[in-house]
Amino acid sequence: MEKLYPLASTTWDDLEIDAMQRVIGTGNFTMGQEVREFESQFAEYFGAKYAVMSNSGSSANLLAMAAMRYSTKFIDPTRTEVIVPAVSWSTTYYPISQLGYSIRFVDIDLDTLNMDINQVEAAIGGNTAGIFAVNLLGNPAELTKLRKLADSAGIFLLEDNCESIGAILDNKFTGSHGEIGTFSTFFSHHISTMEGGLSITDDLELAQIMISMRAHGWTRELPDENFVYNKTGAPFDDLFRFILPGYNLRPLELSGAIGKEQLKKLPHLIDERIKNSKVFNDAFAGRKNVRIQKETGVSSWFGFSMVFENELSDRRAEIVQKLTDAGIDCRPIVTGNFAKNPVLSHLNHSVIPDLPNADKIHKDGLFVGNHHYDLSDGIYKLAEIVNSL
Question: I need a surface site. Which of 157, 191, 271, 284 has the fewest CB within 10 A?
Answer without folding.
Answer: 271
